[in-house]
Design goal:
The complex is a heterodimer. By secondary structure, chain A is of the alpha/beta class. Chain A has helices spanning 14-25, 61-74, 123-127, 137-140, 156-165, 185-192, 288-307; strands spanning 4-10, 31-33, 48-49, 59-60, 78-80, 84-88, 94-98, 103-111, 115-117, 133-134, 148-152, 171-175, 197-200, 203-209, 216-221, 227-231, 234-237, 241-243, 274-276. Chain A has two domains: 2-114 and 240-305, FAD/NAD(P)-binding domain (3-Layer(bba) Sandwich); 118-235, FAD/NAD(P)-binding domain, CATH 3.50.50.60. In chain A, helix 1 (14-25) packs parallel to helix 2 (61-74) and helix 1 runs parallel beside helix 7 (288-307). Helices cover 41% and strands 25% of the residues of chain B. A five-stranded mixed sheet of chain B has the order 1-3-2-4-5, with helices on both faces. Classes of the chains: A alpha/beta, B alpha/beta. Chains A and B meet through strand 10 and helix 4 of A and helix 2 of B.
Chain lengths: 308, 107
């Protein structure tokens, strides 16, 4: 393919789709690589989103993403359900390769690859993944009907997962390293009022126990160092995310946690014609609406770049 | 060859007694990653149907089998040869990654 596109968008959460909507309406004829199994991004594994403005009664995460996708399509964005596996972003013409071996060239690139689940980093966590260790409550909660399970984490995702899992589990124990939650107040209050949720404060998971499936956790008190074991049949890990910037290492300036660094309040990266938005750049806010906002900014920045 | 649906009633004949390797996709309607990997499995089935049979087991409808094989995450993709599980894959993966994992069955 020798055609050089105006803009290629990589990634398809609220940031990627919003960038596609704006770029398509600006008649930049964008092409968006949605990801072969990650299309729609992190919201595809959530349930109800209550705080996206404009949805009085809330909206299901996958439905919201489906609407954004259709909106991008309506304005003519070309949607490709594949991954970008290689990028050469340095030149005036950016060269990207997809998972099927096709190459696409573009004058500008909007990076919106989002983030991946953070793992605790235990050998047995990996070994028992799919055998009681899970990163997706909406996918796997069903298999823990009537059981006692643990959720590790203290942010919004951990609290949302714990609350969701009480639909299935008899008891959900939320294990958090600190003495208070980071989650938003409304979600924390809801979890605290839920009789099926127990809180284990100042506690970290140091090992996952079980031969073929999760049977328990080894825990350590972060205040006095006391170690203990407790029986669980499931462990849901919700300790945050890491930016999916592995393809950018060596090309784009990243901070020491792997987030893309943008110039000031813009979405401009260190490379001319390369813009970044969404969770890939955001340490702080990490909301659907802020991701969408930065996707919009990236499209406008790209439009301005292409006009010059 | 398109993928086919397997149930508790047909599991023995379609999977355990199959003469070719069988990949069983444990999935459910409400699971986003399952829906994402579904079309990829269809493609692999179309391209490599003579080497490996791909069947789908709905864990909502056939929970007894899912429990028997200790499924706690979906999608889980198990490969059966001569009635034994010889490979377990958990989670949706892009097509090239799946093909790599299945390499030894596709030659």
């Amino acid at each position: 393919m020798s055609e050089v596109r105006n803009v290629v968008i990589v990634g398809s959460g609220p940031a990627g789709y919003t960038a596609a909507i704006y770029a398509a309406r600006a008649q930049l004829d964008p092409i968006i690589y949605e990801g072969s199994v990650t299309a729609g991004g992190a919201l595809m594994n959530t349930t109800e989103v209550e705080n996206f403005p404009g949805f009085t009664d809330g909206v299901m995460g996958p439905d919201l993403m489906d609407s954004m996708r259709k909106q991008a399509k309506r304005f003519g964005a070309e949607l490709i359900t594949d991954d970008i596996v290689e990028m050469d972003l340095a030149g005036d013409v950016k060269i990207l390769k997809d998972g099927s071996g096709n190459t696409v060239k573009a004058k500008s690139v909007i990076l919106a690859t989002g983030s991946a689940y953070r793992e605790i980093g235990l050998v047995n966590e990996k070994r028992l993944s799919g055998h009681g260790v899970s990163w997706c409550a909406t996918c796997d909660g069903f298999f823990f009907r009537g059981q006692t399970i643990a959720v590790v984490g203290g942010g919004d995702s951990a609290v949302e997962e714990a609350t969701f899992l009480t639909r299935f589990a008899d008891k959900v124990v939320l294990i958090h390293r600190r003495g208070e939650l980071r989650a938003s107040k409304i979600m924390a209050e809801r979890a605290k009022a839920n009789p099926k949720i127990e809180f284990l404060w100042n506690t970290e998971v140091i090992d996952v126990l079980g031969a073929d499936k999760v049977e328990g956790l080894q825990l350590r008190n972060t205040v006095d160092g006391t170690e203990s074991e407790r029986a669980f049949t499931g462990l849901f890990v919700a300790i945050g995310h890491i930016p999916r910037s592995e393809l950018l290492v060596g090309q784009i300036t990243l901070d020491n946690e792997g987030y893309v660094i943008c110039e000031g309040r813009s979405t401009r990266t260190n490379l001319k014609g390369v813009f970044a938005c969404g969770d890939l750049v955001d340490h702080t806010y990490r909301q659907a609406i802020t991701a969408a906002g930065s996707g919009c900014a990236a499209a406008l920045d790209a439009e301005k770049f292409l006009a010059h | 060859m398109a993928t086919s649906k397997v149930t508790t009633a047909t599991f023995d004949a379609d999977v355990l007694k199959s003469s070719t390797p069988v990949l069983v996709d444990f999935w459910a309607e409400w699971c986003g990653p399952c829906r994402a990997v579904g079309p990829i499995l269809e493609e692999i089935s179309d391209e490599y149907g003579s080497k490996i049979k791909i069947v789908k087991l709905n864990t909502d409808e056939e929970s007894a089998i899912a429990i028997k094989y200790g499924i706690t995450s979906i999608p889980s993709m198990y490969v059966f040869v001569n009635g034994e599980v010889v490979k377990q894959m958990v989670g949706a993966k892009p097509k090239p990654a799946l093909l790599k994992e299945l390499e030894s069955f596709l030659v």
